[in-house]
Give the backbone structure.
Amino acid sequence: MVQFIVLFLPAVISVLIFEAVSGKRLGLKNWVYSYSAFALLVNLIVFLFKKFILSTSNELLAVGGDMTPEVAIRYLVMALVAAVLTALVGGLLSRKIEFAVEDAKKQNDKKSDICDEKE
């Protein structure tokens, strides 16, 4: 049970910080999308940090299906740091960068309307 908290709680914190920093209130669908993206990103960052920086990728994470308390606390601390940093970076970038996705068919219709008006 501890491993579920350790793996998935930091992503909840990331989404909450992301909402606060970006100033956007996410709907349920976007909240779930953001949660899953942050869960993947945070755990990937911790995994890569453990593997390449700490060189502890061979460390046992679970014994008998449960994380040991020492490993769980270490992983949770690293995941919380990664969660806060990714949320801050994502929130600040979302304030500065906006993406507009438009349907190509709608754009072609707009172009044909403009051409019709010129004639």
